[in-house]
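Chapter review: from sequence to fold.
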Amino acid sequence: MTTPAAENQTVRAQSRGQVVQAQFRKHRLAVSSLWVLIIFYALAAFADFVAPYGENESFFRGAIDRSYAPPTRIHWIDPATGGLSFPFVYNVSSQLNLDSLELEYKEDTSQKYPIRLFTQGAPYTPFPISLIPQEWRRTWGFDPQIGLRLFGVDKPATLFVWGADKLGRDVFARILFGARVTLTIGVFAATLSLIVGLVLGAISGYYGGWIDDGIMRLVEVLATIPGLFLLLALRALFPLDAKSSVVYFVVVLILGLIRWGPVARAVRGQVFSLREEDYVMAARSLGSNDARIIFQHILPGTASFAIVSFSLLIPGFILTESGLSFLGLGISDPNSSWGLMLAVAQEGGMQTFTSRPWMLIPGIFIFVAVLAFNFVGDGLRDALDPKARR
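The token string follows.
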């Protein structure tokens, strides 16, 4: 039988990281949300392989017209035997309804098209090689192209898990590719904002005086300007028809450089107390310069706050990027992001709700991602806060 004293000895033997990890695991909602985010980022990273079609692979006009095609019906019952069968689909034919001026789709049950695993599709550059700029890959002569897909069907049948958009592009595929933009912009912008806030907040709190006054006045100026107005004004400085890669960089830069104020203010308050700690005074007496004291002794003391702030900054940036794309100031076609997909859905008006509700699925992903990041942030805050431990 273990005595209370022995249990206390075990707890003391654990490192801080182990204690934080144990506390975080007690927050089941945060753990579940973390797994949701891991799945989201994994799907985004390997979207080329998971999606049956490419980001801009279109089935619009020509021999196959799938404009606003509904989700493909997947059949599990063999019509010949009435028993269970490996999942299959039927090819569909489209016909214009002269009354509603919309395409109507009808299944051709004369031939089955089984859903196959590890099929061949349009060629793509595998991850993570795709992260290297295409110009560099061509210069180096290293640009492998493969067409392996997780699942798919033989042509002329199509497999749209969540339907198709106006140009006959797979919504499921575009959601996965759009996650690369929406989710990574949040991470990169939060990283930039956190770094700027930590450094300026530490400098402000450590030196005080006119340096502190200058940085805090800048924070107050940024806080007085409405965030959306500032975003629109800064984005208007760049051409609207710029490449998506340039827009991506611009949006990250703008978001990161206008949202660092609250972080800097909070870090400044912590540094006011940390700079008087014994270990900081000892480092100063041993001749350490200010940069070494700030970055090696003071800023590590704000690690708990930085981790929690990082997890809570990301959902705000995801919503902001989605809003910019929705207004047509973010990523533009042919690339995709969740906000841009909602903007395309909004063009359909009430018909989107009545006839093509699958176009609203990106909004569900935005909601789930933001909620998951907030739950993870709450779990980290409770795990890193000694007062919250029981």
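Two observations follow directly from the output. The beta strands are 75-77, 84-97, 102-114, 116-124, 146-152. The domain at 173-388 is CATH 1.10.3720.10 (MetI-like fold).
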